[in-house]
Amino acid sequence: MGGRIQAIILAAGRGTRMKSEVPKVLHTLFDRPLLDYPLAVLKQLGIRRPIVVVGWGKDKVLEYLDHQAVPVIQSPQLGTGHAVQIAKRKIGHFRGDVLIWPADMTLIRKETINQAIQEHVRSEATVTILSSFMVHPTGYGRILRRGGRVVGVREELDATSEERRIQEVNTGVYLFKAKPLFDTLKKIQPKNRKKEYYLTDTIHLIDEAGGRIQALPYALPEEALGVNSQADLAHAVRILNRKTIQKHQMEGVTVVSPEQTFIAPDVRIGRDTVIHPWTYIERGVRIGKNCQIGPFAKIRSGSVIEDKAIIGSFVEIVRSKIGKGVFAKHLTYLGDAAVGEGTNIGAGTITANYDGKNKNKTRIGKKAFIGVDTLLVAPVQIGDGAKTGAGAVLTRGTKVKKGEIFVGVPAHPLKPKGRRR
Ligand code: UD1
Ligand code: CA
Predict the structure, then answer these.
(1) pTM above the 0.85 mark?
(2) How far is CA 229 from CA 25, 69, 232, in A?
(3) Which of 57, 86, 222, 270 could form a Cys-Cys staple with 288, CB 3.0–4.6 A?
(4) Terminus-to-terminus CA distance in the chain, angstroms?
């Protein structure tokens, strides 16, 4: 699928309402720019080489895009219709279906897009508009129907008070047959309150020309959120987080207080693990079964936590592998570390993993005991069953062999009692 679909992502607008120097589409949602979300869905659907219309803050957006898409530059930005006119320069001869997706409609799911595509292809409509029903439709374009038939889209600013009561809104995602789209784009005029070329004006023109238009209300209100302001961005975080947490709950994870917990998409957590409040878990983290995480834990990308581990309060973990049944219950930073099964990490243990140039590794074996306030200046190796004393400073390159005990600053082997004088 996807062979005859050309996608165009609209990402040139300034995002005036964000009141920010950062282009809107580069604001992040769980560590990924807004623009990344539609790009990822298209990739999953096998729709290759989308065109991305960039404009405001183009240098930063182009740098971010790298080779992920075909960029076109819209300057100045005269509206969504104008943006598609610019994109058309790349695909003027294309005769399949054009999927248009505004980058600020970040939360639309793959399943929803796929349903709209299937139905568009099956029905052979000229245009398929992805719509949504909203209790509070303020700010969105409204779907105009006459006797059930879609005849146009009206922008909020240009709507009569009667039209404003319409609760079916335009998500801004459409599938168009290429030719009628390109033909009507030539005819739109900036005759509206914003003095912009509206893409939405192609709809009534297509209707007048006898084209068949359908609006499919497949988008749930929560996925049809346009990110236009900082408040919308925070709302999007809340929606995505809630959805992610619900998914984990259905798999048997206990999230004590979902509103106080942040879990990025693409995290895996095993059953009967308990996530305590004020925990923040980044993308790609894997947590096993029967673990206790938090309160106040930050588990960053690149981390794997195996079954029955306890990661307690004020513990940060990044790019580390934490073995089965490891305890790190309080005030610890483990970066670029591997910790073996059954090891106890005392309160205040810190890995000094970064020397200003490189990130260095800390390896701790099984059933080791790291004393309170141990400082591990990586690279450091600690063998199975080894121990460190409270406040030990293991300097760079230290190797503690299996069963050895290191104490002091700089840390050195603890002499057996008998040999002391
Ligand atoms: C648009 C739709 C509206 C719909 C809403 C859904 C139009 C005229 N209105 O309104 O019906 O309900 O989206 O979210 O299309 N952009 C460009 N170039 C431009 C202007 C905008 O690339 O010249 C991009 C923006 O970066 C953004 C997208 O197009 O990603 C939508 O623009 P925006 O100004 O946010 O439109 P809305 O007012 O939200
Ligand atoms: Ca918008």
Answers:
(1) yes
(2) 12, 26, 5
(3) 270
(4) 80
* Placement of tokens 């404009």 in the chain: 55
Q: What is the whole-number distance in angstroms between the Cα of residue 133 and the centre of ligand 1?
A: 18
Supply 307's token pair.
């079954």
Same domain, 178 and 250: no
Q: Burial of 191 by CB count in 10 Å (0-12 exposed, 13-18 middle, 19+ buried)? A: exposed
Residues identified as active-site: 330
The token duo for 387 is 């121990």
Domain endpoint, select from 166, 185, 216 = 216
Mutation pick for ligand 1 pocket among 80, 166, 202 (CB with most ligand atoms within 8 Å): 80
- Please list, in sequence order, all residues whose beta carbon lies within 8 angstroms of the beta carbon of residue 382, skipping any fewer than 6 positions away: 362, 363, 364, 365, 368, 370, 376, 388, 394, 399, 400
33 prior amide bond cis, ω within 30: no
Give residue ranges with CB within 6 A of ligand 1.
Answer: 10-13, 53, 55, 74, 77-80, 82-83, 102-105, 140-141, 153, 155, 169-172, 198-200, 226, 228
Output phi, psi for 72, to 5 deg.
-130, 150
What's the number of domains the chain is made of?
A: 2
Q: Ligand 1, closest atom to CA 194?
A: 8
Q: Are residues 63 and 191 in the same domain?
A: yes
The whole-number mean pLDDT for each consecutive block of 10 residues of the chain, a chain of 421 residues, reads: 81 94 96 96 96 97 93 97 97 95 97 98 98 96 96 97 98 98 97 96 97 98 96 97 98 98 97 98 98 98 98 98 98 98 98 97 98 98 98 98 98 78 49
The residue whose CA is least distant from atom 28 of ligand 1 is 102
Residue type, 21: E
If asked whether residues 211 and 236 sit together in one domain, one would say: no
CA atoms within 13 A on the CB side of 182: 16
* Structural domain for 100, as ranges: 5-216
Question: What's the CATH number where 29 sits?
Answer: 3.90.550.10
